[in-house]
Amino acid sequence: MIRIQNIYYMLAYAFHVLNEEGYKRVTTEDFEYASDLFAAILAKGIANQIKRGLSREYINKTEAIISPAGKINVSASIVQNSLLKKKLVCDYDEFTENSYMNKILKTTAMLLIRCPEVSAQHKKALRKAMLYFSNVDEVDPSRIQWSGIRYHRNNTTYKMLLNICYLVNEGMLMTEQDGSRKLARYVDDQRMHRLYEKFVLEYYRRHYPQFNASAALIDWDVDGGEIEYLPAMKSDITLRYQGKTLIIDTKYYEHTMQTNSLFNSRTLHSHNMYQIFTYVKNMDFAHSGNVSGLLLYAKTDEDIVPDNDYIIGGSRISVKTLDLNADFSNISNQLNVIVEKLLL
User: Which among 1, 95, 203, 277 has most CB atoms closer than 10 A?
Assistant: First the structure.
């Protein structure tokens, strides 16, 4: 289990805006549930966005109006007998705050307001913010088109807010047997894995700039250069320092070890080992041994905690765990020790 307060710190690294002064009070609060944390962040973030101004976009509308605007729809006006009411049906663009991004914010805020695990103070703050969303519609949270959202200079301040909305809607929303929806108490493993990966990358970018941390692509070391149909290889985190390279693959599972029921034994996940070994061997095409790999698991409650270093085919492959339920200063120290031992 991950301490809820540490989710805030992980978000703060993943989305730098949370380091701003306006969010500092959130770090002093104790949260029992992720939904309460997300409500606190959204309440503050939406209030900040209201001060900057809500995003607006042009939306096409067709309706009968007294003063013609845009393009007059003659056939629709005849069918609807709008002329008898001294109106014309017109097709026109309205510049409105009822934008898709604002719809997602309102939908998520209303889910959190209805959630019993959200504290009264954070519900009150969200309700206050929603007064400015009276002209904004809600949407079906299960049909939000996340991949269609595009950020640019004028709406970049929405990025962190919508990523919080994504965690709530995709990582916590459950449908009950009667068709109603409720929020789970914790974020699911798939979304936490993405946050975990982003957190580790941004942590090393911030505290070890000399390592040039990146999510680097890895080329296949093939003879003849023919790579058609080969899948792309992209590391979670790649660190480089003075001729050495460390490839880190983050893993967030309910169980760190896999169990062989036939032999009653536990081993590391085989596909994880195959993957990191493939990454290392293809990046170290010169066979120098200067490229190493690390599987960095989020620690679970299991008795066996992997902490191993192997030399396989001349390359170092390490398996470590990161205790995300510790004080954040301890998490920071764990990350420092791991990378300094393997790369410095």
Answer: 203
